[in-house]
Design a protein that fits this description.
alpha+beta, six-stranded antiparallel β-barrel
Length: 183
């Protein structure tokens, strides 16, 4: 839906649009998780015209709107990303009230994925950032295990579409679109 004509029409309309900083704040608020910016997403990749959707936990850096996840080496999604860095992600807020169609809420992300290996300068910063969002002891043994067995996927968003039925009550469009500078 992030590229439909109806959604793209919203880009041209100034009525009902939030400012860039308001959209960024709304995205961060939506993806905070339990206050730590870690949530479960569906990551979509493609290789040789064969799509793959994977459930994966990403941590959002609220300062940059960049997403980080670690994955075991040699997984299918990592092979896809190595061949084609174009990815799409979706987050749908888990709700218990069964009002999905009445009050929908979700986030679509389209961007480029970069794989970080233990030898990359950003790797340890990304690992430390992600580990800070989980409740477990971080030991030197754990860090060594991660370095040997994991890659970090860094998703740099090009477009984020935030759908929130609550926006309508504020006289805003249901969908708010954020795009990276220069897009």
């Amino acid at each position: 839906d992030a590229y439909t004509a109806a959604t793209m029409t919203l880009k041209k309309s100034k009525v009902g649009r939030m400012s860039r900083s308001e959209i960024e704040k709304a995205i961060i608020d939506a993806l905070q998780g339990n206050g730590n910016h870690r949530e479960m997403y569906v990551l979509s990749t493609s290789f040789n015209d064969k799509p793959l959707a994977t459930c994966i936990e990403f941590t959002l850096d609220p300062k940059t709107l960049i997403f980080y996840a670690s994955s075991e080496k040699q997984t299918e999604k990592l092979f896809h990303i190595a061949a084609n860095p174009n990815v799409s992600m979706v987050y749908v807020k888990n709700r218990d009230d069964r009002k999905y169609f009445k009050d929908p809420f979700g986030v679509q992300i389209v961007g480029k994925a970069v794989q970080l290996k233990a030898s990359d300068p950003e790797f340890m910063d990304a690992i430390n950032f992600s580990l800070a969002t989980i409740d477990m002891p971080i030991t030197p043994e754990l860090i060594e295990y991660i370095k040997k067995t994991q890659l970090v996927t860094k998703v740099i968003p090009e477009r984020i579409v935030l759908s929130n039925s609550e926006f309508r009550g504020k006289g805003l469009h249901f969908k708010q679109i954020w795009e990276a500078e220069g897009k």
